[in-house]
Specification:
56% of the residues lie in helices and 10% in strands. It has nine helices and four strands, in the order H-E-H-H-H-H-H-E-E-H-H-H-E. The chain has a four-stranded mixed β-sheet, with helices on both faces. A hairpin with a 4-residue loop joins strand 2 and strand 3. Helix 1 packs parallel to helix 9 (189-207) and helix 2 crosses helix 3. The radius of gyration is 25 Å and the shape is elongated.
Length: 225
Amino acid sequence: MGKVNQFTPADHTVVTSAVSLAEKSTDGEIVTIVTGESDSYSDVAWAISGLVALTALLVISLFPEIYLHFIDWLAGGWSGISAPPYWALFVFTALKFFGTRLILIWKPLLFLLVPPPIKKARVRRRAVALFRVSTDHRTVGRTGILLYLSMREHRAEIVADEAIAAKVEPAIWGDAMIAMIDLVRAGKPGEGMAEAVRQMGIVLSEHFPKTDQNPNELPDRLIEL
């Protein structure tokens, strides 16, 4: 995954402190994870390359005279062909396909072309996978919750354990998400995650106030992947 997190040691300190402070008033356990990107999108890159190659082939079939003029120009006006040779069509299509795939190695361009619904689905999938590894069923009261930020996709997710999900509707986390994204866009990702954690702590303290029987079961530190 790409290293575009832009998180400094100070950001780590701010987020970790926010988690520790929020958990002082709740039995909820907040886990924070940030990553550069949630997926390589290599399958999307190959699909785009295939689409470009097929589009080029379609253009040639619809306007063969343009292709023939090009071949004639390459031959110095002595090609003498009246129909595109199949081997040349194959070479041209292959060049389009692999040329496009080579260009899409440059991640900023690839991420620009990936449709937003695909980004949303991939970020959610990665968040759920990380939740299952780091948070799911790892607390006595099933009160773990994950705050996940994927920098390159400019997306975040909150995934809660079953006890929290049963009491708190997903829409309740909307304000925390908006506050975080706004600060991330302003170039303050650490402060953004810290603010989201603060607002999550307020919600958790209402439904799961702190008790003496609940130890700190999950790490407070920001995890950077």
